[in-house]
Design a protein that fits this description.
93% of the residues lie in helices and 0% in strands. Helix 2 (11-145) runs antiparallel to helix 3. The chain starts with a helix and ends with a helix. It is rod-shaped. By secondary structure, the chain is mainly α.
Length: 167
Amino acid sequence: MEILANLGIDSKLFAAQLVNFALLLFILHRFLYKPLLVIFQKRSETIEKSLKEAAEIEQRVKETAKMQEEILATARGEAQAILVKAQTIADEKQAAAVEKAEAKVAAVVADAKEKIAAEKRQMLTEAREELGGLVITAVEKILETGLSKQIPEKLIADVVEKTKKSI
């Protein structure tokens, strides 16, 4: 103890300070460190819980994105099928319209040919009648003028017959 006295340390004061320090350490440990440790422990548990929830949310986001891609792929496939079906229907309708138009054209052409043929027959008939009338008129004039004696009757009959055949 003398050593402490030589150093300028009072042993009673040192003992009192040692007791004060121990008492302060006990009070700090009891009222400050333990509550702080509890708070830190709760805080660390909260952080761990938040990290787990964040991981779960991230996993759900990945699953949702995967499901979204699957749904989009399915929708794209369905859209493509609808487009193909619509194109097929459009092609069929176009082919049907073309067939219908071709049938109408064929009917119009057939009708026109029939009308042309009827007009041709009518014109030929009229031409024959007119030509026959002209031949008869010509023969009558020839016969009236007296040339009939010079032209044999057979020649007249041949001319009339050839005229009828050519018409």
